[in-house]
């Protein structure tokens, strides 16, 4: 499969993603997902789109030591960082494409995906593939971002991308925040073979110690940085613009910023 541009987290992108965005927007949701995973008491867990291991580490901490975790991602550069975080046993890392998982049928009790489904080029097909590797009675557990309006940092970053590159604005932020319609998600899961779906909305107000540090991740920590450089724009100018708008909206750092995501649990029957 040709990797979609929005899913190409390579080069220095994983480092900025992990250090600048991870503690603010990903950690809390990783812990929430891990608690939900633990309540299902799985023995064999597959994590898809594990990224830099933020959710993998949360899973390892929440689940019993005997639980086997296989953490996968399409981007080897992301997994290189993930592997430095986890020394405990029963965790293995492997590059894998969610559209064609290299695992046997009915191999896992639980499939977990932290903010990855938005990047799948064919979501019903990816859900069907996740269902294939689940044991009967197993669960597909994942989260997806709410709308840009519910996650103002994304709205601000996208708007500044349009302002700095009006002739060819980067469209990256439309992908992570473009799958917030729960009816569409349910329809895709139904098309992927799931019939029983639970859904919850999870909101956080997260502490942000430094707006510029966070805004650096919003620019350098995703594939949009490639489009910015190609367009001849200085990325640091965009960092300053985003940091300034976040400060104007939420006050001088340290401050707090709202986040919203949707969590889905789909059972295989």
UniProtKB/TrEMBL annotation:
GO molecular function: demethylmenaquinone methyltransferase activity; S-adenosylmethionine-dependent methyltransferase activity
Ranges for domain Methyltransferase type: 46-142
PANTHER family: METHYLTRANSFERASE (PTHR42912), N6-ADENOSINE-METHYLTRANSFERASE TMT1A (PTHR42912:SF93)
GO BP, sorted A to Z: methylation
Gene3D superfamilies hit by this protein: Vaccinia Virus protein VP39 (3.40.50.150)
Entry keywords, A to Z: Methyltransferase, Transferase
Protein name: Demethylmenaquinone methyltransferase
The EC number(s) this enzyme carries: 2.1.1.163
CDD domains linked to this entry: AdoMet_MTases
Species name: Terricaulis silvestris
Keyword Methyltransferase: yes
InterPro entries for this protein: Methyltransf_11 (IPR013216), Methyltransf_Superfamily (IPR050508), SAM-dependent_MTases_sf (IPR029063)
């Amino acid at each position: 499969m040709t990797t979609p541009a929005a899913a190409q987290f390579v080069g220095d992108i994983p480092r900025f993603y992990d250090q600048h965005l991870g503690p603010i927007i990903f950690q809390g949701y990783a812990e929430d997902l891990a608690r939900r995973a633990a309540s299902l008491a799985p023995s064999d867990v597959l994590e898809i789109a594990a990224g830099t291991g933020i959710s993998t580490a949360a899973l390892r901490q929440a689940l019993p030591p005997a639980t086997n975790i296989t953490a996968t991602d399409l981007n080897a550069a992301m997994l290189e960082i993930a592997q430095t975080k986890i020394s405990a046993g029963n965790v293995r890392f492997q590059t894998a494409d969610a559209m064609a998982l290299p695992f046997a049928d009915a191999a896992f009790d639980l499939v977990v995906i932290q903010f990855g489904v938005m990047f799948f080029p064919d979501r019903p097909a990816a859900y069907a593939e996740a269902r294939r590797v689940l044991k009967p009675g197993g669960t597909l557990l994942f989260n997806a971002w709410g709308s840009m309006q519910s996650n103002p940092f994304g709205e601000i970053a996208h708007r500044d991308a349009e302002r700095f590159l009006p002739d060819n604005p980067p469209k990256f932020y439309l992908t992570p925040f473009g799958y917030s319609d729960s009816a569409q998600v349910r329809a895709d899961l139904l098309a992927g073979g799931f019939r029983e779906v639970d859904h919850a909305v999870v909101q956080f107000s997260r502490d942000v110690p430094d707006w510029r540090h966070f805004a650096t991740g919003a620019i350098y920590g995703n594939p949009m940085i490639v489009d910015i450089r190609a367009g001849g724009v200085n990325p640091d100018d965009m960092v300053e613009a985003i940091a300034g708008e976040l400060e104007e909206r939420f006050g001088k750092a340290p401050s707090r910023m709202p986040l919203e995501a949707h969590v889905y649990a789909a059972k295989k029957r």
